[in-house]
Amino acid sequence: MSVWTHVAACIRFDALRLPGIPSMKPDLGNTCDYYSEDGDWGKCDVPCGSEGSLMTHLWENPQEHQLAAYTVTIWGDLRDYDDVEEIAAYLQRVTDGKMVRNGVATVEVEGRQPTILIYRENGWARGTCADVDTL
After folding, report:
1. CA–CA dist 53, 64 (Å, integer)
2. 78-103 residue pLDDT tens
3. Distance (Å, rounded) from C-alpha 82 to C-alpha 132?
4. What mean pLDDT, rounded, does the chain reach?
5. In angstroms, rounded to a whole number, what is the distance separating the alpha carbons of residues 82 and 56?
6. Backbone conformation region of residue 47, classed left if phi is above 0, alpha if psi is from -120 to 50, else beta
7. How far apart are CA 8 and CA 40, in angstroms?
8. How many Å apart are CA 35 and CA 41, to the nearest integer?
9. How far, in Å, CA of 27 to CA of 8, rounded?
């Protein structure tokens, strides 16, 4: 029987997007899915199960004068995968050197207590659903 890991994450990045300032656009890496070509599987550098990787979407604020520059969503259902540490390291890699305003992720390996990752200052803090009060 397969082990599945379910991920949902959202990260808000601030950035100054002015002429002469280097881009602060986050690098989300290369993804693949079940139907991807072999070369795409070889280039995949995000957490990946046997049927594909996490998926990503980068929204760029069209109002370039606003500090709230980018919002990233990361999600996926990874088959035959249970490495929460690798997912946390991927989130750290995406946010390293960036101005992160907010970030939160839930990672649920089937049969285990879900892990909650929250961005705090310069890194990701970890907890479980047992740490969160019910509304």
Report:
1. 31
2. 999 999 999 999 999 999 999 999 99
3. 22
4. 94
5. 19
6. beta
7. 23
8. 10
9. 18
